[in-house]
């Protein structure tokens, strides 16, 4: 997965980049069809904001999170993305012909 990390009113340090990379490995464990990710870290007065767009096969997934601490905002962002990716994966798998759910309804 290719991760594009940009900062808006913030310097993206190696520590932040390493933290984002380590957190996005969690998404790769659940779903490996992520093509690339665009992550924007920004500061608005006292609020630290992290937002990301994932390009996956068949669509895009967007999430954002805001917190007083940038690391906490990144954690919240990854939690939201993880839930959305799992939901996308389940939805994609449930629409296959001959799925176990459809076979159970026929009986």
Record the SSE blueprint.
Layout: E1 2-8, H1 14-30, E2 34-44, E3 47-56, E4 59-67, H2 70-94, H3 100-106
Helix pairs in contact: 1-2
Can you offer a commentary on this structure?
The protein is α+β, with helices and mostly antiparallel strands. It has a single domain, classed as Double Stranded RNA Binding Domain. The protein is 46% helix and 35% strand. It is built from three helices and four strands; from the N terminus they run βαβββαα. The protein has a four-stranded mixed β-sheet with strand order 1-2-3-4, covered by helices on one side. A hairpin with a 2-residue loop joins strand 2 and strand 3. Helix 1 packs parallel to helix 2. The protein is elongated.
Number of domains: 1
Number of DSSP strands? 4
Straight-line distance between termini: 42 Å
SSE-based structural type: alpha+beta
Biggest β-sheet: count, sense, barrel? 4 strands, mixed
Helix content estimate: 40-55%
Rg, rounded, reads 17 Å
Oligomer: single chain
Reading off the top of the CATH hierarchy, the class is best stated as: Alpha Beta
Strand content: 25-35%
H and E order = EHEEEHH
Count helical runs.
3
Strand order of the largest sheet: 1-2-3-4
Name of the CATH homologous superfamily: Ribosome hibernation promotion factor-like
Give the overall average pLDDT.
85
Low-confidence stretches: 102-107
CATH architecture title: 2-Layer Sandwich
Shape annotation = elongated
């Amino acid at each position: 997965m290719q991760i594009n990390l940009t900062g808006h009113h913030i310097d993206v340090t190696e520590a932040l980049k390493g933290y984002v990379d380590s957190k996005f490995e969690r998404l790769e464990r659940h779903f490996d069809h992520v093509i690339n990710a665009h992550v924007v870290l920004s500061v608005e007065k006292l609020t630290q904001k992290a937002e990301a767009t994932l390009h996956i096969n068949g669509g895009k997934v967007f999430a954002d999170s805001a917190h007083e601490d940038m690391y906490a905002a990144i954690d919240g962002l990854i939690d939201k993305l993880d839930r959305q990716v799992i939901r996308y994966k389940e939805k994609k798998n449930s629409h296959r012909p001959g799925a176990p759910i459809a076979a159970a309804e026929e009986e």
